[in-house]
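REQUEST
  id: r-88c1
  op: predict_structure
  target: Membrane-associated phospholipid phosphatase
  payload:
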Amino acid sequence: MTLFAVADFLSTAINPLFCLLLLGERKGLRAAWPFWLRAILTLSVAVGLAELGKAIPVWPGHKGFPSGHTTFAATSTALLFLRRGPRWLVVGVALTLIMMVSLIYGRWHSLGDTLGAVVLATSVSVALWRLTRGSPE
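RESPONSE
  id: r-88c1
  status: 200
  body:
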């Protein structure tokens, strides 16, 4: 297996892992629904804005800003942190960094594309969490 194949696998496999982490609520289904609805809203808005951003090329021929994969990963990281605390921030940041390195190594995105995605994801996550919850837990 080549390093490129590993990068391709990681850039594809990490976001489904985040979905499982977000669904893994221990407080019971009834208690988890409000969080899941906020998570769906937040992920939809963040990734939707990332995709809209691609309609405006940063420079001719470049339509990858910001990275949608990184936006999803960083938004998931923020949601895990806001819901479950700092311990999950470490897990999320590690997975997001692996995603970023994989996308850059595979030449699907630049460092700027992935950093822009992190800024977008963090901003949207905190703003929507505050709007829908009152303030971060």
